[in-house]
Amino acid sequence: MMENNLDTARKILVCCGTGCLANKSMDIVKNLKAKIAGLGVDISVEPVVKATGCNGFCEKGPIVKILPDDISYYRVKPSDSDEIINKTIIEHELIERLLYYDARTGKRVKSQMENPFYNQQMKIALRNIGEIDPLEVNDYIERNGYSALRKALIMKPEVILAEVEKSGLRGRGGAGFPTGRKWKQCDNINNFPKYVICNGDEGDPGAFMDRSILEGDPHSIIEGMLICGYAIKASQGFVYIRNEYSLAVKTMLEAINHAEEKGFLGNDILGSGFDFTIQVVRGGGAFVCGESTALIASIEGRVGEPRAKYIRSVEKGLWGQPTVLNNVETWANIPVIVDKGGDWFSSIGTVKSKGTKVFSLVGKVKNTGLVEVPMGATLRELIFDIGEGILGNKKFKAVQTGGPSGGCIPSELLDLQVDFDSLESVDSMMGSGGMIVMDERTCMVDTARYYLNFLAEESCGKCVPCREGIKRMLEILTDICDGNGQEGDIDLLLDICSMVSEASLCGLGKSAPNPVLSTIKYFSDEYEEHISNKRCSAGVCKDLTNFFINAEDCVGCGLCKKNCAPEAIVGTPKETHTIDSSKCIKCGNCIDICKFNAVKVL
Amino acid sequence: MKIIIDGQECQAKYGEFIFEVAKRNNIKIPSLCHDEALPGQACCRICIVEVIGNKWSKVVTSCVYPITKEIEVLTNSEKIMNMRKMIIMLLDARTSESDPIKKLVKEYEVLPITRFISGDKEKCILCNLCVSACDILGTSAISTVNRGIMKKVATPYDEAAVSCIGCGACANVCPTGAIEVSEEDGKRIIWNKEFELIKCGRCGENLATREQMDYLDQKLDVKLKEYSDDFLCDDCKRRTRAEQLKGHNPYRCSII
């Protein structure tokens, strides 16, 4: 029996982030509520069931957390609801099977803080997510929400600007421009009205940190924007959210309504005389609209194409007026900085990158999800401690950071301390914090081709270097993957890269060569092998791959044969199997499924 | 303020673009998407130059880079020439039949590239001048559609645009002759739309489309027809005016 908490109101927090929702977490909420209602007088204090934002550990969702007992259950099914109420809520017993199993210690753990996925994290931007119902403004207020706004409204604007500058916070959207400096530059321009924009056009494949904040803690963004509005004397803010994030749009719209009802938005906010309103603008799904000038063009109702930034947005932004544009995660950090002070924030992180960063750890890693760690954490800590290593115990090959224009970092650099500058020094970038882990079955030429293909579709197509450069790089990479690579292709790629990175109009074009540059830099052997030997050692490029079964390792279990769709594998049980290459479609099923590592790439 | 372009001292106003200052001082910077009436496209980027600071240098687009301090500019450093050649090479690979591009290929001694699949009779370099011209006229019959490598200039859904008046401003401003206009039997065909041409009342040359004249009526809030039975071309207007001044007017037509 656990300690009896009958006198305290219990809270059952059910993760309703997008991943958990897809796994029926809303049904869990319904079932729990129905069960509690049906119990009536059986328990002295009725527990509250709350649907929260994303807990981050999407791999093990849906997650149900019970407070104040601090119990976390993972991979909960709607059918587990009755048992949770009967056993844990009424009888105060743990349900062992739903607890997290720590493979390293062989034990099941009760609290999130005992779970290695969580206990190495430090949550600032994600501080409330998973703890509150995003649609309940009182939940946010209960956790110190809007106290930074109250504090800011009696501070002098220049003191706020100095505090944000002192914090060392750099823009979390990718470029890492010092936030305090941006605000100050905008404040120094004597031209009104001024605007405040939140960039929620997150479009990197595999990245969902902004979505999680928009869906799980919208008031932290509103509060951050309010503080900036007060500091730079702006009275209108815009939150630009891509329309594919329908839950984020809905949550943000409701949060704005609630904030207005509570007097945090509108006229004469909290009696201070400061007016501020926020409008939600839905983006049409163009990746390039995440670029600040394209985003501004899109809000203005023009085609979402960037412009040259020789005159910056802080001077001439939205409708030609001074504008501060920051990313979702940046805004979420602001209230904490104002609350706890710039010195506190700058004590976290590395010399030039302060605070924490949220990464979306995805790909071939065991624990996928959102993780927030102090700047300076190593790739190894992220992938092997928090992420618990590579799926299927395969070999780590590279980690791709920074979204489609980021780079691939090889295993030699696993001890790299991650911050804005270190990532750039290895030909990658922070970007918005995407982290895609790749194993030995990933072909690096094919990876570069994949990203260039993404960029070829998502470039706005306005300037020649980006549009034509990407098109031709993609053409060469496709040729190499198809076995039509030519001598001199690598040099030609490098020449195009150097032009595109300098002559392109915006950040998308300037960083577009990164996937090519970093894969050539760290995996040039693979390129050479594709071009000269017409072989893809990862077994990905179909025209350059042949699989065979190694007789010494094959035990004749027949698993590969059973899973081979074109029936290309022959063999009798307990005898070595063979692959008929004329029938093989090179899907790679056999190599992925073999438990004895007997299938090899020729 | 003073700036130095390729070693030559030039006077520049604050905020003026490098391209304009260079042009005024007879320093040639190549460009395809620059038009004085429709500035700021910054698409073709062959006008890139290198701006040299104290301990730094950067590549900028001269047609939109505003001069805000005394700087030194190199229009054809080795770095710029290499990049410009690469851009011209990419444009050449895109447009297999464009004379202005072929001329640039020759001028900059760009090696012919055989590595790529060449553009299928493509002439358009997507400089956006046509779209800007159409926008400024207020017709907005064409725009760029799609993104990235699929981008093109088109009328809505590639059909004859209701708002197109067949004025041909787009074709006129196009640096590569990519917009097809045909005139036959008193008809002009442009952007898949056929227009009746009004002829000059004196010499009979094609003058403008009926829709263009109607558009002028609407814009100017007049009825041009009320001023004249016929419309005259520019040459005939001059001729008629001169004859009127001499007191000899064989052609009884007011001048519009």
List the helices and strands and how they pair.
The complex is a heterodimer of chains A (602) and B (256).
Chain A lengths: L10 E5 L2 H5 L2 H15 L8 E5 L11 E4 L3 E3 L7 H10 L9 E3 L4 E3 L6 H4 L17 H6 L4 H7 L3 H11 L11 H10 L6 E6 L8 H8 L1 H15 L3 E7 L3 H16 L15 E7 L8 H8 L23 E5 H13 L1 H5 L9 E8 L5 E6 L4 H8 L9 E6 L5 E4 L9 H6 L8 E6 L4 H15 L5 H18 L7 H15 L3 H5 L2 H19 L14 E3 L9 H4 L6 E2 L7 E2 L9 H5 L5 E3 L1
Parallel strand pairs in A: 1-2, 7-8, 7-10, 8-9, 11-15
Antiparallel strand pairs in A: 1-3, 3-4, 5-6, 11-12, 13-14, 13-15, 16-19, 17-18
Helix pairs in contact in A: 2-3, 6-10, 6-13, 7-8, 7-10, 9-11, 10-13, 17-18, 17-21, 18-19, 19-21
Chain B lengths: L1 E4 L2 E4 L6 H7 L23 E5 L4 E5 L10 E3 L3 H17 L4 H9 L21 H9 L5 E3 L6 E3 L14 H5 L7 E4 L2 E4 L2 E7 L6 E4 H11 L3 H4 L6 H12 L11
Helix pairs in contact in B: 2-3
CATH topology of the largest domain in chain A, by name, is Rossmann fold
The dominant shape of chain B is globular
Rg of chain A: 26 Å
Percent in strands of chain B: 15-25%
Distance from first to last alpha carbon of chain B: 45 Å
Structural class by SSE content of chain A: alpha/beta
User: Biggest chain pair contact, residues each?
Assistant: A-B, 38 and 34 residues
User: Please, what is the CATH homologous superfamily of the largest domain in chain A?
Assistant: NADH-ubiquinone oxidoreductase 51kDa subunit
Q: How many domains is the backbone of chain A divided into?
A: 5
- The CATH level-2 architecture of the largest domain in chain A is identified as 3-Layer(aba) Sandwich
> Which strand order does the major sheet of chain B show?
2-1-5-3-4
Contiguous low-pLDDT stretches of chain B (5 residues minimum) are none
Total domains of chain B: 2
- Helical percentage of chain A: 25-40%
Largest sheet of chain A: 5 strands, mixed
Mean pLDDT of chain A: 92
Mean of pLDDT of chain B:
90
Say how many strands of chain A there are: 19
